[in-house]
Amino acid sequence: MAEAQKRLSHTTVKRRQRFHPKRDVRPAVLAKANRLVIWVAAFIGLSFLAIVILQAVLG
Fold it and tell me: How many helices (H) and strands (E) are present in the chain, helices listed first?
């Protein structure tokens, strides 16, 4: 019983999800979205730093 349960959990945990063209988002779209998110995060971070430095200089 314990061995069957162990084997079942092993297959469910270790099974890799394969790319399904009709259901999943294409990897190129995911890569483009990831680049966009990183670019926006960098822009927000740099804007925040610029505001903090500007306030330190002016105030």
Answer: 2, 0
Hey, what amino acid is at 34?
N
Residue 15 is inside which H or E element, if any? none
**Which residue in this structure is represented by tokens 């790319």?**
19
Cα-trace Rg, the chain: 23
Q: Which amino acid is at 50?
A: A
User: Amino acid identity, residue 27?
Assistant: P
pTM above 0.90, yes or no: no
pLDDT in tens, 5-56: 555 555 555 677 787 877 777 888 899 999 999 999 999 999 999 999 999 9
